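Milestone 3.1: sequence recovery, worked example.
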């Protein structure tokens, strides 16, 4: 019935913020969003037994008092260990993701009954043209990224998982945005444009029909279109794992392949070949904050955070620096 109405009747669409409208035929069932289940996804559960294996290898809480723990980041995990992964004898690298550690509440204690330490870390990767690389990284060096003012992966609630890259729905939503994003603060400060390529997007669904249970993977990272096409990726039977023509894994969301919520990993060798072929360079930003979870007395603690910038040297080693900022 919806298809027959869409084919024979025009709908009103707003064309600006002033309330002006035009009449046009519906471009597809994705606009307006009439679809309540994604048939392109495979319902799956995260591996709860392995859910924090990588996290626990990288960091553990000390028993020192809260104020002393908050006072410095000497215990902050190694950035290289957070972004570099060895899996099935292949090297992968994290492009976008999060690490979150929350102190154990203790046996027999209800959640948030006692104060708990928490450390969260956001890692974002950016690709830039070689000619702009030094200008952008010099500008960002020693900056505080709190407030998350740099571009981040775009997400869409309407697309199906395997509609990405080829479908009319994907082309419709891609027309409203470019994968290369301006760094607005750079433009305001330096008076010239500087764009970076955000290498991932996020598939997100709130469709009720997509949920098998509370452990369902309702959101995951996917490569941007430029990466997908340049590396000639192919879908497999899974949700987030993409392959080359030889059936080798190129990239994946850690929730699906590793059973752990971290982010998007890509084959390191293939990624650096992509950069060299296109005359690109890459850098990462890291933003992390220490907090104390105690709603009754939380305001009495400072919540310090760090911001850091990491680049790749001529030997393809990731190096950088981190700066502390008071909460």
């Amino acid at each position: 019935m919806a298809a027959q109405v869409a084919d024979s009747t025009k709908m009103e669409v707003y064309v600006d913020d002033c309330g002006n409208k035009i009449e046009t035929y519906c471009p597809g069932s994705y606009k307006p969003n009439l679809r309540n289940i994604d048939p392109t996804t495979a319902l799956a559960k995260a591996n709860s037994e392995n859910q924090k294996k990588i996290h626990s290898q990288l960091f553990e809480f000390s028993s020192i008092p809260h104020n002393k723990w908050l006072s410095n980041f000497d215990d902050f995990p190694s950035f290289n260990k957070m972004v570099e992964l060895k899996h099935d004898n292949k090297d992968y690298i994290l492009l976008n993701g999060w690490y979150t550690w929350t102190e154990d509440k203790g046996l027999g204690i209800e959640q948030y009954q006692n104060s708990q330490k928490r450390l969260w870390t956001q890692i974002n990767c950016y690709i830039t043209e070689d000619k702009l690389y030094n200008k952008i990284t010099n500008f960002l060096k020693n900056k505080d990224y709190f407030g998350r003012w740099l571009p981040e992966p775009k997400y869409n609630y309407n697309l199906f998982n395997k509609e990405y890259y080829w479908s009319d729905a994907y082309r419709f939503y891609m027309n409203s945005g470019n994968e290369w994003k301006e760094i607005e603060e750079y433009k305001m400060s330096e008076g010239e444009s500087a764009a970076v390529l955000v290498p991932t997007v996020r598939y997100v669904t709130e469709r009720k029909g997509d949920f098998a249970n509370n452990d369902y993977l309702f959101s995951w990272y996917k490569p941007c279109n430029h990466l997908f096409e340049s590396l000639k990726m192919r879908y497999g039977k899974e949700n987030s794992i993409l392959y080359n023509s030889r059936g080798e894994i190129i990239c994946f969301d850690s929730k699906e392949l590793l059973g752990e919520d971290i982010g998007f990993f890509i084959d390191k060798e293939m990624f650096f070949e992509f950069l060299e072929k296109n005359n690109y360079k890459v850098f990462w930003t890291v933003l992390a904050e220490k907090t104390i979870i105690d709603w009754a007395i939380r305001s009495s603690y400072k919540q310090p955070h760090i911001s850091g910038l990491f680049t790749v040297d001529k030997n393809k080693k990731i190096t950088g620096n981190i700066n502390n900022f008071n909460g």
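The mean pLDDT is 86. The CA atoms of residues 153 and 201 lie 5 Å apart.
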